[in-house]
Amino acid sequence: MSQTELTLIPCTSDANSGSVVPVTPKITLYTAAPSQNAVRPELALLEKGISFDKIQVDLFGGEHKQPAYGEITPRRQVPTLVYGEGDEAITLYESVAIIQFIDDMCPEPPLMPPVSEPAKRAKALMRLAEFQQKLDPKNIFGSVVFRKQTREQLGERVDALLEELPRWDAYVGNGPFLCGEQFTLADIAVFPLLMHFEAIGYDYSKHTPSLFAYMNQCKMRPSVVQSGWIENFLAFAREREPGQVLAG
Q1: With bands split at pLDDT 50, 70 and 90, how would you rate the model's confidence at 127?
Q2: How many Å apart are CA 10 and CA 45, to the nearest integer?
Q3: Among 14, 95, 104, 130, which one has the highest count of C-beta atoms within 10 angstroms of its own C-beta?
Q4: Of the residues 105, 129, 163, which one is the last residue of a structural domain?
Q5: Domains identified in the chain, total number
Q6: How far apart are CA 209 and CA 197, in angstroms?
Q7: 57, 150: one domain
Q8: pTM of the full structure
């Protein structure tokens, strides 16, 4: 596993002295450059300005199957986040759970509307749940890229996805984000997945113009740019020449 340490501005600073105040224990993120799941915690950390160690795990080389990685995370998957060190360390290994934990442990700047704004918070919570229960299960990227399945073979799965995406177009509306003006955990969850569909031919500008504008907003987001994820993901996709099963 290769390691790159990122030095970022912590969440808070001492307003009187201007000195940096440590606000979090050591954070280590185990990731894989092109993974849409693994980029979510990185985006949350970058949004917060939290310093963390970023360790790349070679999934295609089977590094996650080695005993050493199994000692870090029982699911042997990325992303895995280790919060703290030694006996006090907390390990999390589901992307949505990780980003929620990050927002709880370092609440500024917030990535969810406050409970004092229940309508906005309810919307963000619903979008997160809908992502997990309705949108993510319709992801066909793996079937296209790794199994080389065609549109004909995917059949109803493509139809279900094409029926689902206009719903998210309506959610964005005038946006610019899923829940209005605030960039939230829902955006961190959903945007990387939407990139999957673009890579296999979905034309947002033609079919879902609000999502098209939304995608452009997310692509320009400083945390997204700093992560370098889009370049890594697109290079990964181009190398595998996926069928454009969502084109048309």
Answers
A1: very high
A2: 10
A3: 95
A4: 105
A5: 2
A6: 15
A7: no
A8: 0.91
Question: Does the residue 110 lie in any domain?
Answer: no
Show the 3-state SS of the chain: CEEEEECCCCCCECCCCCCECCCCCCEEEEECCCCCCCHHHHHHHHHHCCCEEEEECCCCCCHHHCHHHHHHCCCCCCCEEEECCHHHCEEECCHHHHHHHHHHHCCCCCCCCCCCCHHHHHHHHHHHHHHHHHHHHHCCHHHHHCCCCCHHHHCHHHHHHHHHHHHHHHHHCCCCECCECCCCHHHHHHHHHHHHHHHCCCCHHHHCHHHHHHHHHHHCCHHHHHHCHHHHHHHHHHHHCCCCCCCC
Q: Are residues 191 and 78 in the same domain?
A: no
Residues 84 and 181 in one domain: no
Contact assessment for residue 78 and residue 57, using Cβ atoms and an 8 Å cutoff:
yes
pLDDT tens string 133-161: 999 999 999 999 999 999 999 999 999 99
Residue 57 and residue 165 in one domain: no
pLDDT in tens, 102-122: 999 999 999 999 999 999 999
R_g of the chain computed on alpha carbons: 19
> Could you tell me which residues come within 8 angstroms of residue 218 by beta carbon, excluding any fewer than 6 positions away?
177, 187, 191, 224
Peptide bond into 79 cis (omega under 30): yes
Q: Which tens digit of pLDDT belongs to each residue from 179-196?
A: 999 999 999 999 999 999
235: left (phi > 0), else alpha (psi -120 to 50), else beta? alpha
